Amino acid sequence: MKKIRILNLEIDNWSKQELLDNLKSGVVFTPNVDHIVKLQKDSEFVKSYSIGDYKICDSQIVMYASKFLGTPIKEKISGSDLLPAFCKHHRNNEDIKIFLLGAAQGVAKKAQKQINHKIGRKIVVNSYSPPFGFEKDEAECTKIIDLINNSDATVLVIGLGAPKQEKWLYKYKDDLKFIKIFMALGATIDFEAGNVKRAPKWMSEIGLEWLFRLLCEPKRLWKRYLLDDVPFILLILKQRLSMYMNKNSKDTQQTLLADKY
Ligand code: UDP
After folding, report:
1. Is 103 in the pocket of ligand 1 (CB under 6 A)?
2. How much is the pTM?
3. What are the C-alpha distances in Å from 201 to residues 31, 46, 197, 221?
4. Which terminus of the chain is more solvent-facing, meaning fewer CB atoms within 10 Å of its CB: N or C?
5. Tens digits of residue pLDDT in 159-196
6. Are strands 181-184 and 26-29 parallel, antiparallel or unpaired?
7. Quick one: pLDDT at residue 248?
8. Torsions phi, psi for 144 (to 5 deg)
9. What is the pLDDT of residues 105-131, one digit of tens each?
10. What is the pLDDT of residue 55?
11. CB-ligand 1 contact for 190 (6 Å cutoff)
12. What's phi and psi for 9, nearest 5 deg?
């Protein structure tokens, strides 16, 4: 199966290698439980998500859900694994020139240095960490667009968290004339800079990456993981029982039934 439906979202069923071999242009989004829960209510987020050409599974919990629904996704490709794999894959491909946008001041520059050092060439050509609230400031957004357009970059990695990064791309993607590949990768820039620690592999493999992140940044993340994302379980149960409906995608129930038979 090429696409796997989880609630009102179709996830692309690629392996990491298939994605790396096929990704020549387009927009990559990395849905996890939090994105899927937000997609239930936020119609602007749903609209922004429509520009995603590759929607790959970022979460072990979503992997479990897909299994439970009888349509297993073949591989988890988290954004934070994708960026290092992408850079390694294109180590000798001079057409790939990356711009990093996001994270707190100074962090994107640190990530730029670390990645270039690891890869052994200037694969990240420039980077910028915008000030808090920049998305509401047209002049700041214009400045960012100019910075990217003048950077020689062909790939944009945007790490502003969801739904900000997807909404920003929806609004400004067409102004970025020279970018061929857009990747919205959440906290990946922080991880690459070594600013925030990633969960140990065993934890992310059994679906506990969220717990590690919660323990590292409780103030910022408690609401997301302990309150907002909990309804996901009930919604998946509903889908399993063919009782899931969503006003953001009127045909969801029909599609689910069509997929089943
Ligand atoms: N961030 C940012 N600007 C903002 C809000 C957030 O650069 O206005 C960055 C923040 O520094 C962090 C990332 O966005 O690096 C937040 O990632 P989050 O944990 O929400 O994303 P996830 O990896 O869970 O998708």
Report:
1. yes
2. 0.93
3. 19, 31, 12, 20
4. C
5. 999 999 999 999 999 999 999 999 999 999 999 999 89
6. parallel
7. 65
8. -65, -40
9. 999 999 999 999 999 999 999 999 999
10. 98
11. yes
12. -125, 140
| CB of residue 163 inside a 6 A radius of ligand 1 | no
All residues at 6 or more sequence positions from 117 whose CB lies less than 8 Å from its CB, including other chains: none
The H-assigned helical ranges of the chain are 16-22, 33-38, 43-49, 60-68, 79-89, 107-119, 138-149, 164-172, 188-193, 201-205, 209-216, 218-223, 231-240, 252-260
pLDDT the model gives residue 249: 62
pLDDT at 255: 41
Whether the ω angle into residue 84 lies within 30 degrees of 0, i.e. cis, is no
Structure tokens at 13: 């069923």
Distance (Å, whole) CA 83 – CA 106: 19
Pairing relation of β-strands 181-184 and 155-159?
parallel
Cβ atoms within 10 A of the Cβ of 203, count?
A: 16
Is pLDDT at 261 greater than 70 in this prediction? no
Measuring from atom 4 of ligand 1, which residue has the nearest CA?
160
How far the first Cα of the chain sits from its last, in Å, is 14
CB atoms within 10 A of CB 177: 8
- Mutating to test ligand 1, I would choose from 33, 134, 160, 188 the residue with most ligand atoms within 8 A of its C-beta, which is 160
Residue 84 Cβ < 6 Å to ligand 1? no
pLDDT reported for residue 246: 82
